[in-house]
Design brief:
With 386 residues, the chain is of the alpha/beta class. It is built from 11 helices and 13 strands. Helix 3 packs parallel to helix 4.
């Protein structure tokens, strides 16, 4: 469809053509296994080295501290389960927040079944956890704290640097994991400066293909592989490397970070433009902090008297793609824990949609989407029973 307006970029993004072309070239020409000793293998290995260096430069870390996985979910799982199991003798306590992605929360639940003790911290009405509350929760036997950089449903930003500082003040041995799947590519994130020991990112959220994730592991962190095997990637993550995905993730990241500040300014302007028009519609509420207090790309709207699913499909008929609550689980409809955690009234829990932007969106698209909302909401409300 020509006039499709894709506003579901927190679910996934369209691949940059440059990244797709690179994938195609590597798969069809430079298809060697990096473990092979011949030229094709060396060529593939070089691609991995280059990809790691590009990503390391962006994060201002050493490339030897970077590992590739299959997705953000795997990075989160490897970071949390891998560290919990490797550090069990030092303690059994983990800390996280109630608004983490299921990749984190489900890993925490699985670890509870293995005997670990997990503290789930609440957030305020804007979806932000208090750094002091994190520090207070950290104990002598805390081995890891996991706090997301940017929330995928409402775009709340956590004070990561402050949290990192306070964790280390309280217990220097406690590891700090940050799920930056929604933040990487939208913000400058420096693990060393922010006292982050483990950082997760995902390719398909930054215009690279699906099937590639990244994990930063600081020096000295004890971590056990969750996928043992042939010993690739220093034994931490076995499996023949997805060389094309790695190279494409690095290229997409570079394309974003080469002019991140301008793009972020433009995204905030688009976000404000959409919010301004949405707020002019009666009974529409914006979740989370205003302006730069939230992520540049996520807009969460609660719409009185209209079910999210109905609005989503009505928008879809106009070529506008959004999601209901969190797209990661939109095919398993449930009431969002994040929306509950920020105190969203019961009647709005299934009346909340998420629009998420990317650098590919334009002002025209935003205006067209806002016009569709303005037209559809009063119309659909008439047919909703109260
Ligand atoms: N963490 C967050 C905050 C996310 O938004 C997502 C996906 O939406 C993930 C983790 C999982 O990433 P992936 O889809 O690459 O497994």
């Amino acid at each position: 469809m020509n006039n499709e307006i894709y506003l579901d970029n927190s679910a996934t993004t369209k691949c940059f053509p440059e990244a797709a072309e690179l994938v195609c070239r590597i798969l069809t020409e430079e298809y060697g296994n990096p473990s092979s000793m011949h030229h094709k293998g060396v060529e593939a290995e070089r691609r991995i080295t280059e990809a790691k260096q590009i990503l390391a430069d962006i994060l201002k870390v050493n490339s030897k501290n970077l590992y590739f996985t299959s997705c953000g979910t795997e990075s989160d799982h490897l970071a949390i389960a891998g560290c919990a199991r490797a550090n069990r003798r030092a303690g059994q306590h983990l800390v996280t927040t109630v608004i983490e992605h299921p990749a984190v929360l489900e890993t925490m639940h699985a670890l509870e079944e293995e005997g670990f003790d997990v503290t789930y911290l609440p957030v305020d009405g804007d979806g932000v956890v208090s750094p002091e509350a994190v520090a207070e929760a950290v104990r002598e036997d805390t081995i890891l704290v996991s706090v997301m950089h940017t929330n995928n449903e409402i775009g709340s930003l956590q004070p990561i640097a402050e949290i990192g500082r306070l964790i280390k003040e309280k217990n220097p041995k406690a590891l700090f994991h940050v799920d930056a799947v929604q933040g990487f590519g939208k913000a400058q994130i420096y693990p060393k400066r922010m006292k982050i020991d483990l950082l997760s990112a995902s390719g398909h959220k930054i215009h690279a293909p699906k099937g590639i994730g990244l994990l930063y592991v600081a020096d000295g962190v004890k971590i056990r592989p969750t996928l043992p095997g042939g010993g690739q990637q220093s034994g931490l993550r076995s499996g023949t490397e997805n060389v094309a995905g790695m190279a494409a993730m690095a290229l997409s990241a570079k394309m974003l970070y080469d002019h991140l500040d301008e793009d972020v300014d433009r995204l905030y302007a688009l976000r404000e433009r959409l919010i301004g028009q949405a707020q002019a519609i009666e009974g529409v509420h914006v979740n989370g902090k205003e302006g730069r207090g939230s992520a540049p790309h996520v807009i969460s709207l609660s719409v009185e008297g209209v079910r999210a699913e109905v609005l989503l499909h009505a928008l879809e008929e106009r070529g506008v793609y959004v999601s209901a609550g969190s797209a990661c689980s939109s095919n398993r409809p449930h009431l969002s824990e994040t929306l509950k955690a920020i105190g969203t009234p019961k009647e709005l829990l299934d009346a909340t949609i998420r629009l998420s932007l990317s650098v590919m969106n334009t002002e025209e698209e935003i205006d067209a989407a806002a016009a569709a909302l303005a037209e559809l909401i009063p119309f659909l409300r008439k047919y909703t029973r109260h």
